[in-house]
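Field guide to reading this record: the first block holds the primary sequence, the second block holds the structure written as discrete tokens, and the final block holds curator observations. Each block starts with its own label. This record concerns Type III pantothenate kinase, catalogued under organism Pseudomonas lundensis.

BLOCK 1 — SEQUENCE
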Amino acid sequence: MILELDCGNSFIKWRVLDSEGPVSGGVADSPEGLIVEILACPELSITRCRMVSVRSDVETSNLVAAIASEFSVEVDCVAPASMLAGVTNGYKDFERLGLDRWLAMVGGYKLSGGPCLVLDLGTAVTADFVDSDGQHKGGFICPGLSLMRNQLQTHTRRIRYDAASAKGALQCLEPANTTIEAVERGCLLMLRGFVSAQVQLAREYWGDDYRVFLTGGDADLVADVVVDARVIKDLVFVGLAVACPFS
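BLOCK 2 — STRUCTURE
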């Protein structure tokens, strides 16, 4: 069985594949929590591991060592590249492009076989454009919902509420009559506006001949903004399998 890891700034997404496809997975908030979650599934027999990490070199090395020690496997880590699977990195310094963004683009291009817009809606929100030749034209980064909310709560004394209240505030997008609803709906409308702007730019580039991929935890909140978008929560894992193939 293959263990796949997507180590972001806040969480570690994981899943385990057998010859038929994914059999288990989850989201851990720490390396220790990750190992506990995997060990809680005794039916999993890890024989290989591939990983992408945007964490520091020290954090990544420590996690690799922990996985190798616990499961007696080598860990194949993605490294920056100027080109992969027909996609050309568009950054002036290719090593500065986040590896999760890079793999999401590679995954999107693999699935589309042509021009695509990849929108990753997580802690930060990223938009990346890949043309028909696999050339990354560049992209944008803005705060995600959680960052926008946290900034308002940090810098505005009277804005305080929990996650459950935030979720309830998004049942509709009508003008709000409570602060919680006003903040949550306002932030979501900003996010939806960002997505709409990216779609308009893609249309200016390619007309109607392109695909949109939505990934990340908040993808469902904007899916209706792009009628033909494909929501693929694990798009980074699609690119990870391309970058670290196991025959």
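BLOCK 3 — OBSERVATIONS
The two ends are 12 Å apart (CA to CA).
The first strand starts at residue 2 and ends at 7.
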